[in-house]
Design a protein that fits this description.
The chain has about 550 residues and is of the alpha/beta class. Among the domains are: about 75-180, Rossmann fold; about 260-440; about 460-545, no CATH class. The strands form seven sheets. Strands 3-2-1-4-11-12 form a six-stranded mixed beta sheet, sandwiched between helices. Helix 8 (about 335-340) packs across helix 9, helix 9 crosses helix 10 and helix 10 (about 370-395) crosses helix 12 (about 425-435). It starts with a strand and ends in a 17-residue tail after the last strand. Residues about 555-560 have low confidence and may be disordered.
């Protein structure tokens, strides 16, 4: 039996799968005390089931996505060591940024040492502005982390009570701006992610679950929950990835469809092409900045069933924030869910309070309750359909996606919109009509995220770095470094060696039977030239067991709430 758990900003969902069937499911409100929510949801699906029968638990969460979408995280100060190149005005991340003048070259050699005075000045600046979280990133720190470590050591010596993240620990790839953004977001969310993982592990241990526990990554792969703290940024879009895999498992194989997951806080939009989720060709775009997070092509829109609706003058405005449950469920402010209740499109909440919410908004404007509700429906529908249209344009302009169009000999415009999430049923018909598509709400749509987590194929990754001039290679995940024995060594041999190490890791984690195909997720080769002669190569490759779902979901026995 497999368990999928999805912890969202509004609800915590759980499913229990047995032989490809949904044996039980649950949906409970997410409380500030995560442990209580997890245990309640978990206990509902485990009634009559012994803990020893559980083979695997996979989690996903939209909490980190929601924090970023609503900007509900502590400010992070940046200490950057970019070296020569771009003008410093290009490094604008809407936060306090101190730039140091040291430099490491592409091979990892120090060409300009750090200035102790500049380091002291940067620390004094951050301290004077009361920053408690600071990210330190050098351009070629993945080749040589000396400068980042020097700054970190000075912070420790100054006894500054800061949470510090270093770029080389977050992302090993080149592309300095993306590593800056990845490190910034890791620093911004690590404490809340730590609280999340601790709560999950405590909840499962409390109920005697001893099987492997994984968390879904943004690309639809998985990683062990205990080791995910080393790279929490990889799980930022874990919730959206779960909804895509859930839809993939719930619709017929080979379908092409737009996925619209409308939750309480955000709406996640994605595309499934011929049965396969679209992978972002440039990494995850977060808050308008590119990152090194390998992710499915997902757009998170800060609009959901619990979004705040306000009246400003004679206008009704939909805000991109959630401050509590809908008014009809005891919340403080009118929301789209209240509009759904007035229009008879949801069973949630109290009708009289929903009408009161509409009166608060429309009374001063002389609008009737149903008119206000209809206006709110139009705002939500217009926001989501506008974002979907923008995604279509973006995908059609990218060469990686044009290739798919050429192969299919037609323009990619799905004629089906699949809605999942708690608020999807109320809005999907209008969204589909605006896009000239057919609306589809599959079975178990309300817990699609948890289903996606449960059916996610376990994945493992190996990152290999080789220096052919020095004759050495290292495996990042294993902390191993050794001599290159197969000379002359090139990128093909590097990939072959990485695959062998991946096989070893699969054996160690008991995943050999699920190894399947291996996908190359990164390959970078740099020639080292001196005196006009190539002296060697720096080779960076990463391979991963293939992502996907273990099986499609049958109708099963529905033991969830009615």
């Amino acid at each position: 039996m497999y368990i999928g758990l999805d912890v969202g900003g509004t609800y915590t969902d759980a499913v229990l799968l047995e032989k490809g069937q949904v044996r039980a499911w649950s949906k409970v409100p997410t409380r500030q005390d995560l442990l209580t929510s997890l245990l309640e949801s978990f206990d509902m699906i485990m009634t009559g089931v012994h803990a020893d029968l559980i083979e695997r638990v996979v989690l996903s969460t939209t909490m980190i996505t929601n924090l970023i979408a609503e900007k509900k995280y502590d400010p992070v100060g940046l200490i950057l060591i970019p070296g020569p190149g771009l003008d410093h005005s290009h490094y604008n991340y809407n936060t306090e940024t101190c730039i140091l003048s040291g430099a490491i070259d592409y091979r990892g050699r120090e060409i300009v040492p750090l200035s102790p005075g500049e380091v002291e000045g940067a620390l004094e600046r951050m301290a004077s502005l009361n920053y408690k979280k600071v990210a330190v990133i050098g351009k070629f720190s993945s080749r040589n982390n000396k400068h980042e470590k020097e700054v970190f050591k000075r912070i420790q010596q100054a006894n500054l009570d800061w949470q510090v993240e270093m770029g080389h620990q977050v992302a090993g790839q080149l592309n300095f701006p993306r590593r800056v953004m990845s490190t910034l977001l890791t620093c911004a969310t690590r404490d809340k992610y730590q609280f999340f993982t601790d709560s999950v592990l405590a909840a499962l241990d409390n109920r005697g679950i001893k099987c492997p526990v994984y968390i879904l990554k943004a690309d639809g792969g998985t990683m062990p929950l205990k080791t995910s703290l080393a790279a929490p940024v990889e799980t930022i879009f874990s919730g959206p990835a779960a909804s895509i895999l859930g839809v993939q498992a719930l619709i017929p194989p080979g379908e092409t469809a737009v996925v619209v997951d409308i939750g309480g806080t955000t709406s996640d939009l994605a595309l499934i092409l011929s049965g396969q989720p679209l992978l972002s060709s440039k990494g995850a775009n977060i808050d308008g900045q590119m990152t090194h997070v390998r992710a499915l092509a997902v757009k998170s829109v800060p609009v959901g069933g619990d979004s705040v609706v306000e009246r400003v003058g004679r206008e009704i405005i939909l805000l991109s924030e959630r401050i509590g449950p809908p008014y009809c469920m005891g919340g403080p402010m009118p929301t789209p869910t209240d509009a759904l209740k007035v229009l008879g499109l949801t069973r949630l909440g109290d009708l009289n309070r929903a009408k009161e919410a509409m009166q608060i908004l429309g009374g001063p404007l002389g609008m009737r309750e149903w008119e206000v509700a209809a206006r709110i429906m139009m705002l939500v529908t217009g926001t989501i359909t506008s974002e979907i249209a923008g995604m279509f344009r973006s995908w059609e302009q990218e060469p990686a996606y044009r290739v798919w169009e050429v192969l299919q000999k037609k323009k990619v415009r799905p004629d089906t919109v699949v809605g999942v999430g708690g608020a999807a049923s109320g809005f999907l018909t209008q969204i589909a009509a605006a896009l000239d598509c057919y609306p589809v709400i599959p079975p178990y749509a309300r817990v699609a995220n948890a289903i996606g987590a449960a059916v996610a194929r376990p994945t493992l990754q190996v990152s290999l770095r080789a220096d052919t001039e020095q004759g050495t290679f290292s495996i990042q995940e294993e902390g191993f470094q050794g001599p290159i024995e197969d000379a002359p060594f090139n990128e093909d041999k590097a990939l072959e060696l990485a695959r062998k190490w991946l096989w070893k890791r699969a054996e160690k984690y008991g995943l050999k039977d699920n190894l399947g195909d291996v996908e190359v997720i990164r390959k970078e080769v740099f020639n080292m030239v001196r005196d006009w002669v190539t002296r060697g190569k720096l080779i960076d490759v990463s391979v991963q067991t293939k992502r996907g779902i273990l099986h499609y979901i049958g109708t099963g026995v529905d033991k969830g709430e009615k």
